[in-house]
């Protein structure tokens, strides 16, 4: 099945965006990472780390997955059925 047809079946809007970028390359969103984007990523990472530390200080069971790309590890975390917080 052609990729553009698969894209349309999954998301007509995404398909339209892909076509729009081909028709009007100047309308494509900028891929430059500015200082604001970098600052937001840092704030997010700091927030996540502080939240994790607060859970650990409360002796909360936390399943930490070091490598997000490993499906088996994620599946093990789900099957552990640790309480959600």
Essential attributes:
85 residues, mainly alpha, 4 helices
Q: Care to describe what's here?
A:
The model has no long low-confidence stretch (mean pLDDT 82). This protein has helices spanning 3-10, 12-23, 35-57, 71-79. By secondary structure, it is mostly helical. It contains 4 helices and no strands.
Strand content: under 5%
Instruction: Write down the Rg.
Output: 20 Å
- Encode the helix/strand succession as letters: HHHH
What does the overall shape look like? flat
Number of helices: 4
Mean pLDDT value: 82
Query: What fraction, in percent, of the residue positions are helical?
Result: 55-70%
- What's the story with the biggest beta sheet? none
Secondary structure category: mainly alpha
According to DSSP, the number of beta strands is: 0
Low-confidence stretches: none
Span of the ends, CA to CA = 43 Å
Itemize the secondary structure elements and their pairings.
Elements: H1 3-10, H2 12-23, H3 35-57, H4 71-79
Helix pairs in contact: 1-2
């Amino acid at each position: 099945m052609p990729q553009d047809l698969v894209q349309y079946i999954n998301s007509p809007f995404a398909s339209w965006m892909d076509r729009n970028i081909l028709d009007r390359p100047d309308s494509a969103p900028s891929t430059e990472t500015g200082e604001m984007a970098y600052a937001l990523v840092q704030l997010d990472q700091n927030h996540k780390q502080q939240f994790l530390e607060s859970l650990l200080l409360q002796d909360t069971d936390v399943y930490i997955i070091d490598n997000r790309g490993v499906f088996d590890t994620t599946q093990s975390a789900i099957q552990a059925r640790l309480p959600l917080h």
